Amino acid sequence: MAIAADSSYPARPGCWKEAPGFAVEEAGVAEGLNRLAAVPADAVLAHLPIPDWPPDQLLEAIQSVDPLVPVVFHQPRLSPTETARLVHLGAWQCVDDHVEPADWEQLAEDAAAEKRLRELSLRRPCTQGESWKRFLVGESRAIRELEQIVGLVGPRRCTVLITGETGTGKEMLARALHTASPRSRQPMVSVNCGALPPQLLEAELFGHVRGAFTGAIQHRVGRFEQARGSTLFLDEVGEIPLELQVKLLRVLQERAFERLGSSETVRVDVRVIAASNADLPELVRQGRFREDLYYRLNVVPVHLPPLRERCGDVPLLVHHFLAKICEADGLASRRVTPEALDRLSGYAWPGNVRELENAVERAIAMSGDRLVLYPADFPLGRPRLAVSPASGLPAALPGGGMDLEGTVRAFEAEMIAQALAQAGGNKTLAAELLGLRRTTLLAKLHSLSGRDLRGFSPGLANSPVRRRRAATQHPSVRTAPQQAAAQDCFNTNRWTFRSSSTSL
Predict the structure, then answer these.
(1) Are 346 and 167 in contact (CB under 8 A)?
(2) What does the alpha-carbon distance between residue 477 and residue 184 come to, in Å, rounded to a whole number?
(3) Residue 161 has what DSSP assignment?
(4) pTM greater than 0.85 (yes/no)
């Protein structure tokens, strides 16, 4: 759909070329708005100037019809100040006449992906039977597998052992399992086993009677009793001391225990979900964790992958945290630029989802009243690729010599494939990860065979959303050459892209 002032408005050939897989329709402003209301589009590309339609009014009119559609402005000349103002008002990107035909195709793909991302981040609330899905944010294969597990295991009473690095969301998964069960009528009870000293953990879990030990001046109900008919979440279960593991094993086997200082047996109906960021089998081999307790806990094992292995979920998580934090603080909605999403998607996140949430909260706090967050609002360390010790490189020169050129070529291909996989196929971001210029990376890709890159198979659905970087970058974070080039690099043509062969 091409939006123009009237049917006689001159078309720009470079702009009107249809991107493969997308149908482009032409219309005037009024007709285009009517069509947009009737049939949702993947993106609107508006060529400026349009008589009687200032950019901000046109943007408001389009957003009033479809608040989720990405709007791109195209105009030969537009100042960085005006561009920043339009982006602040909600425009997705601004480009100029220097856009190459291939860039229009990329722009169409990125806009369609952005529309899908916005729709996913504002999905309709789950039905009552699937309210647990609100705890699992993402569209990656790992999240889909977790949803299947929760759907199958959630309604059961069986014990679940959740493993994963710190900050991956083990408690959120435990809450999803609890919410998917009939026990969700009562609140889940949580205990961080690593936060209490051993002498207090037993009393915390099983309770005590008055006089059981010095300072026990009254009767105390333990967490197992509190969770009667509900779910008990034992976080950092690997920190439980050996002498207490025997008692925990009995509770899991018989659902019975005695309070400290009492001989009365207490029976409870409780479901146990345990979590640990430690390697429990290794602790078993070291004699620091009972083998029988490990097998009793490991009825249904679930592993949460680190965020760096599902970086395609980062944009959805960012939008989720933006909405959550702004709602909690009573703030107006914030949004992030495509460049900021690229930056966040390319970071390694050693602290996983918890670190990402903290980064979003810090950016909101430090941005003041600004409604748009830029890459400079996220002061992250440079993403780094970890070099595997089993990379195939010899530790010393073999006695019979070696093929140095072939070995270096194989290692180079492996690193490029890993960088492309981590960057979701974004060659610009992959070049940054490798410390190369984009042109250098393209030359290396051209020289490498498909066999050399056999481990790389990018996919749009599970990869970070690709973006053109310079078009909407905030003036305050540009280099001097970028600032000069940006003086006339902002706006768009009067299009609406609609996907005809892809489901984005």
Answers:
(1) no
(2) 48
(3) E
(4) no
Q: Any residues with CB less than 8 A from the CB of 247 and at least 6 apart, and which?
A: 202, 206, 257
N-terminal to C-terminal alpha carbon distance within the chain: 18
3-state secondary structure of 179: helix
* 429-480 pLDDT tens trace: 778 778 888 888 888 888 775 555 554 444 333 333 333 333 333 333 334 4
Q: What domains can you pick out in the chain, each with its CATH number?
A: 3-122+477-499 (3.40.50.2300), 159-298 (3.40.50.300), 404-447 (1.10.10.60)
- Per DSSP, 445 falls in state H
Instruction: Give the CA angle between residues 347, 350, 354 to the nearest 5°.
Output: 95
Torsion sign across C-alpha atoms 256, 258, 264, 268: negative
Token pair in block for residue 177: 């399992």
- pLDDT tens digits, one per residue of 271-311: 999 999 999 999 999 999 999 999 999 999 999 999 988 88
For residue 312, give the nearest of 143, 138, 504, 464 by alpha carbon.
464
The bridge status of strand 3-4 relative to strand 27-28 is parallel
Rounded CA gap, 406 and 452, in Å? 11
- CA 29 remoteness from chain centre: 36
Q: What is the per-residue pLDDT for 218?
A: 75
- Residue 287 Cα distances to 242, 275, 279, 347, angstroms: 9, 19, 13, 37
Q: In residues, how long is the chain?
A: 504
**Cα within 13 Å of Cα(386), Cβ side:** 9
